[in-house]
What does this fold into?
Amino acid sequence: MARQWKVLLVTSVAVFMALLDVTIVNIAFPDIRRSFPDEPLADLSWILNAYNVVFAAALVPAGRLADRFGRRRFFLAGIVVFLVASAGCAVAGAVSVLVAARVIQALGAAVLVPTSLSLVLPEFPPAKRATATALWTATGAVAAATGPSLGGLLVDWQGWRWVFLVNLVIGVPALLPATRLLRESKDERATGWPDLIGATLFAAGVAALALAMVKGEDWGWGSARVVGLLIAFVALLGVFLIRSHRHPAPVIDLSLFRIRSFSVANVGAFVFGIGFFAQLLNGVLFLTGVWGFSALKAGFALTPGPIAAAVCAPLAGRLADRFGQRVIAIPGCALFAAGALTLAVSTTAEVRYAAGFLPGVVLAGAGIGFALPAFGSAAVAELPAARFATGSAVAACFRQIGAVVGIAGLVAVLGSTDEPLAAAHKAWALISVTGVVSVVAGAALGRIRPRVTTLSAQSSTTAA
It folds into this structure.
């Protein structure tokens, strides 16, 4: 196997592990709750919320630091932190310990995700980067979609602690070859530390938005806490933008948003992320709540979706390399919208899996396999090499905020009626709308011309 594909494999395995935890713990939550029967649900919910909030908030600061001080160094540190925290989650005997370990785990994941892609891109010539990014992005999409089925299997087999221990099984085999395979690279032009105050402002602002979205249904959307968090988000983001404009080493170089492909792709990824993550959760809740499937059975019923995504993603990358990302994003988003709409109109209270559920899941999965790689590769295609980690971190942050908004919106929709079937249909109809809006974003991508960069032009190399 050529070196470039080995690098892609090693980094993709690590990303699979990190993004698997976005969804796998959801399916284990009831079993976790049974292990801590005296703990209030509000406290237990932070096992889920802490990871999502911290992960979203830390992505961009982590990517900027990696660009400055070394992507390989940060990538390896991220794997170690994530694995140690996963072990801590597995042995936790108290909810407070479990939540603390989840926070540390999220920090490791926030380092892993942007640095992994920034290590992959320089290994490929510009003409093949869309294929590489498509495969990398598909890994994350398949990980998120596989979470329910794998989680159900592990919980049914050995209990909730194995949804954390499985990270060791995945991550350790990736860590060992990474230490000798990956080359160090960083932004050689940067001096001193990036804007740490700006990083704190950005992380706090994203955390405030994510927390408001996560807790909006519980606290009330008009409550003082939620409104206060949204006001804090706007204020912190405003100060951050002003500071980034003036600081010599900002966390995000605002000039990146002048790159059309970067800006449009991030908007598309945000909107698509809303629908994608809502689709994942809505499917699980429909199968378990309306059709009465067990968590394990529901997970396997959803598996054709990730399979369709995994099959379509490599094709999407090759087509994007040849014809451009716009040609792939538009049909991908349209397929996703059609899949969600199919589920909205074809599912009934009666269990009709092959005729009523499977076609919609496969259509949506195929759409995911095309759309996410298209937006992901478009976001980084025209970036300067010195900003690969920061740029991919911004793109991942947009997707993650989309996930938080999508799940919060889904919870609000499902809570608006006492009829589970009607609520699921309403949710799928709205998910279909996000696919339609994403089509517009895909059409706006325009013609993308990847930058020609080499490892020697942008890295200090520590070869294996």
Notes: Confidence is low (pLDDT under 50) at residues 452-464. The chain has 17 helices and no strands.
